[in-house]
Amino acid sequence: MPAKRPNNPARELLFGDLWEYDPAPETAPAHIAPQYGLFINGKFTAPKSKKFFDSISPGNEKKVSEIALANGADVDAAFAAASAAFPKWSKTPGAERGKYLFRIARLLQDRAREFAVAESIDGGKPIRESRDFDVPVSAAHFFYHAGWADKLDYAAPGRTLAPLGVVGQIIPWNFPLLMLAWKIAPALACGNTVVLKPAETTSVTAMKFCSILQDAGLPPGVVNIVTGAGDTGTNIVQHPAAAKIAFTGSTAIGKFIQRTLAGSGKKITLELGGKAANIVFEDAPIDQAVEGIVNGIFFNQGHVCCAGSRLLVQEGIADEVLRKLKMRIRHLRVGDPLDKNTDIGAINSRKQLEKIQELVKSGVSEGAEIHQPACRLPKRGFYFAPTLFSNVSLSHRIAREEIFGPVLSILTFRTPEEAVEKANNTPYGLSAGVWTDKGSRILKMSTELKAGVVWANTYNKFDPASPFGGYKESGFGREGGKQGLLDYAQIA
Amino acid sequence: MAVQPPRTLRALLTEIGPVDQVGIEERVAKYTTRSIKKASKVQALKLAVSMVDLTTLEGKDTPGKVASLCLKALHPHDDPTIPSTAAVCVYPRLVKHAKKLLRNSPVKIASVATAFPSGQAPLETRLAEVRAAVEDGADEIDMVISRGAFLAGELALVQDEISAVREACGPATLKVILETSELETYDNIRAASFLAMRVLRPGDFIKTSTGKTSSNATLGNNQVMLDAIRDFYLETGTPIAMKPAGGIRTAKQAIQFLIAVKETLGDAWLNNARYRFGASALLNDLLRQLAKEKTGAYQAPYSFTEASGSY
Description:
The complex is a heterodimer of chains A (492) and B (311).
Chain A: E1 35-36, E2 38-40, E3 43-45, E4 52-56, E5 63-68, H1 72-91, H2 94-110, H3 112-123, H4 127-149, E6 161-163, E7 166-170, H5 176-189, E8 193-197, H6 204-215, E9 223-225, H7 230-237, E10 242-248, H8 251-261, E11 267-271, E12 277-280, H9 286-298, E13 310-314, H10 318-330, H11 350-365, E14 369-371, E15 387-390, H12 397-400, E16 407-413, H13 416-424, E17 431-435, H14 439-448, E18 453-456, E19 475-476, H15 481-486, E20 489-491
Parallel strand pairs in A: 1-5, 7-8, 7-10, 8-9, 10-11, 12-13, 12-17, 13-16, 15-16, 17-18
Antiparallel strand pairs in A: 2-3, 4-5, 6-20, 11-19, 14-15
Helix pairs in contact in A: 2-4, 3-4, 4-5, 9-10
Chain B: H1 9-16, H2 21-31, H3 38-50, E1 52-55, H4 63-74, E2 87-90, H5 95-102, E3 108-112, H6 123-135, E4 140-144, H7 147-151, H8 155-169, E5 173-177, H9 180-183, H10 186-197, E6 205-207, H11 219-236, E7 241-243, H12 251-264, E8 277-279, H13 281-295
Parallel strand pairs in B: 1-2, 1-8, 2-3, 3-4, 4-5, 5-6, 6-7
Helix pairs in contact in B: 1-10, 2-11, 3-12, 3-13, 4-5, 6-8, 10-11, 11-12
């Protein structure tokens, strides 16, 4: 047992304005068109619905672009194009398909800065993250799957892989470009064609991506992108030509998709919500754990399905961890997503902001103790200060429901067994984190935690080669790695 | 100060907590993505100038070289808004020459003592060297710890020697060089930081390196030591100062180190009583960047010398 590290709460450090960072806005042009049609059969086309809706920037609530609202006829057209392209694309040699994927990856790298700025304007995430994470990792997914395209014979030894056909893909608003890459890259590597719908609030980078597909010379119809809201998604899910539906989003919609497709024999992969436990043992490297906790919950404003939103900390160090967390969040910089020094950007939409506010209110009224740093939030736009809740019990709503915002619930435990039990006491099972200096404990915990991903002494690490996906109500199927690839193929 | 030294390194680490290498390097990588511009940059550059311990530690040092170093420290540039450096740092034999020029000036005289850089001399010899340097007018003493003893597990010996040097310093400020590259692991650096801090006075320093080994100050070992200083301060109320030394050659690097200070220890450490840079080439790059901020253009290369030894 480590000796209890003494704390004197009277002493404080001064994080003032002696040396302020000046605004450092990213100024590269994002090249966002005033209006985007649908991308069907290799061309931008006007929607048959003749309707458009506004996409606004959550950072300042200004209109960014007009996005086409696809109706049933538009979705039909997209599936028709994808079905027409399938026979030729699926017979294109893997090495040739790989070339297209490599080209897409390189074009994305060439235009990385432009895409990062567009992603931050449209979605509200800080430019530091879109520049250093979203765009490079998106390109990495295309590179990785480009490598698989001509090696499919070796993905499942002794068996052969065949493409499924046209896959319908629906992606969320938290990582618009990255989720697009996760979906499109393995589908194309396996020889499928695609109809994809980005989220209603974040369609811009998907539409910009279409110009990369054109520049890469991808045959028309191989990838079709239709924009719209829930009805458009329903049209995709129910479309008879879809051989598979891949969905990332809320558990409620995931259940709807499963009900809709029950008995159809169609393949489904679902990557749904989470309420991940981040477990800190007494012997953990505390400062690095604090950093990991911060990264786990405040990365992308907490709009991460695998966010470490439940902190489980061993009782002996609970006070020290809370104290260090409070100190750490005092110098997180909340504000303009385009400022290079911003750590926490804008909440993606007013609707999401209201949901976060509602859940935080419930946390306070259910008796948890709230901690928020004094930080100035911009007047316009959707912002929420980083928030900690201590004295949380497992029955609180903030410990059970996915908040999808910068809000951390802190619980304590006494023994490893209790930690596992509390961590697994959730309908979800997407991810978990373990912080300890003891290697054997990491291995034991990783087998006992019911979560698709368990990070040890780190958090929110993603690699195209590493499969990602959940247990229980967090969904099924994997994305990334060989496992994710096989979910886009028939294995005979 | 009666301090009970820990029996073993393991016991000490259990008490103060370990460091995760991957985690700390990720943390410091974030400092390098901060973008410091305009007025904020000018402020940082001037602050960094005021924190420099302008150093010459060569076998070929002469009174003449030390004199030009002192003049540079007093008056780094024509621009009157640029402050003098915090100190000059020289070998003990040259302290009296520096004293002639720096008497009654704000620039302090620091001297490396204790058989710098190896520390491999009898304790009495090392203490005598410290006393001689202080007698000649050194305001600050930079000592090295016995890395051999630390690695052999003789923690009490290491701590006792630091105490002895502190006594020998008298009124002079003490800077304890851990020589991080020879301690190798972040766990060791954290442990050595605590060993030293527990016998230091408020305002004494812990310092990364001698500048005489292959790797010197890095954002990583700087962060481990800043974290240790913060934990120690919150625990005891004793503020210990910090000096990264060696390897910080550019203004850009210096600003990244200052970001680490701002975000770890806060405003109370953003001054030259609590934070220093042990450097020689750094000063001219800071001046070059300040001139560039003022005029909007980089000056010709011959306006500032590149060689660290030519002031």
